[in-house]
Specification:
The chain is α+β, with helices and mostly antiparallel strands. It is built from 11 helices and 18 strands. An 8-stranded mixed beta sheet has the order 3-4-6-5-7-18-8-17, with helices on both faces. Strands 12-14-10-15 form a 4-stranded antiparallel beta sheet, covered by helices on one side. The protein has a two-stranded antiparallel ribbon with strand order 1-2. Helix 4 packs across helix 11 (393-409) and helix 9 (316-330) packs across helix 11 (393-409). The chain is elongated. 49% of the residues are buried. It binds zinc ion (ZN) (2 copies). One zinc ion (ZN) binds next to loops.
Length: 414
């Protein structure tokens, strides 16, 4: 494994990247842009999955198809042995109209790779290409390309379809690009790093009446107002001040005229927490406050609470190990040990409930990698002018290779 400096344009001069991967940078850029130009939504990643599988097979890697409908796993065997480690990327795009004008802009109206999953897929392909040619490790590296990260729970589907039975592994690792962090810098935090995402729907059943005869009604508007205010005290009065939690009511629907007290009202929104005990508490208190407030007015409620993604919680030993590898790849200056956890959610959390592992951020830079006149808005995730920064491709691929080979060449962490 030779060492080379990072190519011009990347931000961190102390990087220690893998030379053959740097030689492969142009091809990885081509692949990334091809995926960007042909975005596919959750569970529809048929062409993306086919491209991934075709490349893996071309490079001599056996492929498992159809896990989680469109998921793909490449099985890269090194020296004989029972050890195994998983590296995971996501493949799906978003229902968004791209505002960029560059040559690789989306060819599909209303669909866009605005979260950089095109880059995640290309970085993992870069690692797979190198590992297939350099099988100097014990056991098996599984490169996992999952569908439907954006709300569809593709990670869970792959697990339900037998991912960890067909692919036995000691640990699993994930990575996401992070705009605003220096290009190629890497960051992680042990413990909770991304929040659980949950949705609620409250229907308040009152009694409709003429608005001039409020004494004949049970007014669901007043109940909704009281519940909305009281719910905000759950975070401020029931949650431990050191535990982060969000309760956002995002829609209130009721009524049809100025002279009618409506029959019912509906409130929906989202709850985010970093731990399951806080989530349990939030759900319970929301139910209690809503039903007791409604009862005080003579109304009744139906309350539905849906848990989508659990909190993403990085495991201690695997996070320590990932930190060592990051330092090797981007240097101590490029590693941020204390990135702020985010209230965004990520379905890699399902994988971390099954296997120990760690999920890290790789900086996507400040957006200057894009051409001028690229479109409106900053280069944030889910922004119609976002683009993945191609200078990260060899950085992420080098991290994956060093992580997998390092993991399999050291004694098990547990
Ligand atoms: Zn996203
Ligand atoms: Zn994403």
């Amino acid at each position: 494994m030779t060492v080379a400096m990072v190519p011009p344009g990347a931000a961190i001069p102390t990087m220690n990247l893998i030379d053959p991967i740097l030689q492969f940078h142009d091809e990885l850029t081509r692949i990334r842009r091809e995926i960007h130009a042909h975005p596919e939504l959750a569970y529809e990643e048929v062409k993306t999955a086919e491209l991934v599988a075709r490349k893996l097979e071309e490079w001599g890697i056996p492929v498992i198809r159809g896990l989680g409908k469109t998921g793909v796993v490449g099985v890269i065997k090194g020296r004989p042995g029972t050890r195994g480690v998983g590296l995971r990327a996501d493949m799906d795009a978003l229902p968004l109209q791209e505002h960029n004008g560059f040559a690789h802009k989306s060819r599909h109206d209303g669909r866009m790779h605005a979260c950089g999953h095109d880059g995640h897929t290309a970085m993992l392909l870069g690692a797979a290409h190198h590992l297939a040619k350099n099988r100097d490790f014990d056991g098996t590296v599984y490169v996992i390309f999952q569908p439907a990260e954006e709300g569809g729970g593709g990670a869970k589907q792959m697990i339900d379809d037998g991912l960890f039975v067909q692919c036995p592994m000691e640990a699993i690792f994930g990575m996401h690009n992070w705009p605003g962090m220096a290009a190629g810098a890497m960051g992680v935090v042990a413990g909770p790093m991304m929040a659980s995402s949950n949705e609620f729907e409250l229907t308040i059943h009152g009694k409709g009446s003429h608005a001039a005869q409020p004494h004949m009604a049970i007014d669901p508007v007043m109940v909704a107002v009281q519940v909305a205010q009281s719910w905000q005290t759950i975070v401020s009065r029931n949650a431990n001040p050191l535990d982060a939690a969000v309760l956002s009511i995002t829609q209130i629907h009721t009524g049809s005229a100025t002279n009618i007290i409506p029959d019912s009202a509906q409130m929906v929104g989202t709850v985010r927490t970093f731990t399951l005990p806080v989530l349990d508490m939030m759900e319970q208190r929301m139910r209690e406050v809503a039903s007791h407030t409604a009862a005080a007015f003579g109304a009744r409620v139906e309350f539905e609470f849906r848990r989508n993604y659990p909190p993403l919680i990085n495991h201690g030993p695997e996070t320590e190990f990932a930190l060592q590898v990051m330092k090797e790849v981007v240097g101590s200056d490029g590693v941020k040990k204390d990135v702020q956890p985010t209230m965004g959610a990520e379905d890699f959390a399902f994988m971390l409930l099954e296997k120990p592992g760690c999920y890290v951020f790789i900086g996507n830079g400040d957006g200057l990698h894009r051409e001028s006149g690229h479109g409106l808005g900053p280069c944030n995730l889910h922004n119609p002018s976002y683009d993945f920064n191609d200078s990260l491709l060899p950085v992420g691929a080098s991290y994956w290779v060093r992580l997998a080979t390092g993991f399999l060449s050291r004694p098990p962490l547990r």
